[in-house]
Amino acid sequence: MVTGNDAGCRLEPRPASCVLEFIAYQWPALRELGADWPSAAGALRLDAAKRPELMHFAPGRWLAPEPTSAVAAMLNSAAAGAAGTLVDVTGKWEAMVICGAGAARLLASTIDVDAILKDRGCAAATLFDCPAILAAPGADFALWVQASYSADFIATVQRLQSTLWPGY
């Protein structure tokens, strides 16, 4: 049984029907992209429910999970204006959420979350030897793990959960 202040955590898959990635041709050259773009390193644009809708996860690279029509129009306009290229990466990333009081503790087994996300909303990272994008728009952690690594990522998280919180 879980004791103390640790209440464990859950890993919840979040299937995505559309994921887009925008890659700028020049970095940093964001004037042509407009003020609505999250341009600072690790900046997030959140939707009304406080979920990431456009993430600046690496230099000159943005991920748009489940883009709204407004975000898709923004991305298409930037691509049409020759600011970069827009790629449909649906299937490349598996969306997941790690939630619960023990989420940060679980991730601390692989990275220093506070250091990686210091002054950032998101970052590209390697989690348990799996390429991923990590975002912390609130108390939970949103993840996009490369699909070819997702089975290993899930198995590692399950092993850690049983070690950190036996009987959880």
Which SSEs are present, and which pair or pack?
Blueprint: E1 10-13, E2 19-24, E3 44-46, E4 52-58, E5 61-65, H1 69-80, E6 84-88, E7 93-99, H2 103-107, H3 113-116, E8 122-127, E9 130-135, E10 141-146, H4 150-164
SSE topology string:
EEEEEHEEHHEEEH
Residue-averaged pLDDT: 88
Radius of gyration: 17 Å
Give the low-pLDDT segments: 1-5
Main beta sheet: 5 strands, antiparallel
What is the β-strand count? 10
Strand order of the largest sheet: 1-7-10-9-8
CATH architecture of the largest domain: 2-Layer Sandwich
- How far apart the termini lie comes to 6 Å
In the CATH hierarchy, the third-tier topology of the largest domain is known as Alpha-Beta Plaits
Helix content: 10-25%
Characterise this structure:
By secondary structure, the chain is α+β, with helices and mostly antiparallel strands. The chain folds into 2 domains: 19-88, no CATH class; 92-164, Alpha-Beta Plaits (2-Layer Sandwich). It is 21% helix and 33% strand. The chain has a 5-stranded antiparallel β-sheet. The radius of gyration is 17 Å and the shape is elongated. The relative contact order is 0.21.
